[in-house]
What does this fold into?
Amino acid sequence: MHLKALMAVVMVLGGVAGCRGGNDRWATTENTNVKIDFDKVNEAYKLADGPEDLEKRVNEIYEGKEIISVAVQDLDNKTQVVTGFFDRNTDGSVQDDEKIFTIRRQITGDGQGNYQTDGYGPHYGYYHSPMMGIASSMMMGMMFSSMFRPNYVPVYVTPYHTSPTRVSSMQTHRQSYRAQNPSRFSKPSATGRKYNSVGGGGGTRRFGGGRFGVARKDRTRKPERLTA
It folds into this structure.
């Protein structure tokens, strides 16, 4: 009986350790749970002059440390699909577990079209935009406006993917952009919390500096003056 009880305890402890190990591995992966303002992403796509301009705009919006890569493919002369993804294996192609969002754009008539955005994965899968209409009379970038031209021919039948060699240049650009817009970005801690958080909401209140020594209410002995 004692041997069976000991084995049961070992199995329980082993299971707990395994669960902790899984959580630790997740905690040390890339911080891919940073929020994305999808309204701004939609606007960035509408105003972009091309895939490289879209890359720049999306990475200015994203507040995490990773670089968002972009894939653009024209499925036919009416339909375009844009995919935002974290290129973790740096191969320049989209894997299902790397997807952040997709934007599907379609031409629906003369000077008319629509597009819709869907998030992916455990952190962004909650987002599904309504079908958003677009018209040739709207202000938009070349990526959109070109599709309304009479002689329009799909450009990205062969898909465009962010080249891994562009990642470093985008990082440099984003660092410069963030330095020029300090009010928009704050330095996160390793746990995702902000440094020197103050106030309510269950946050931790931190103060810099402090007095030397410890105040004691019941202190009876007076300090002695040292003589030379």
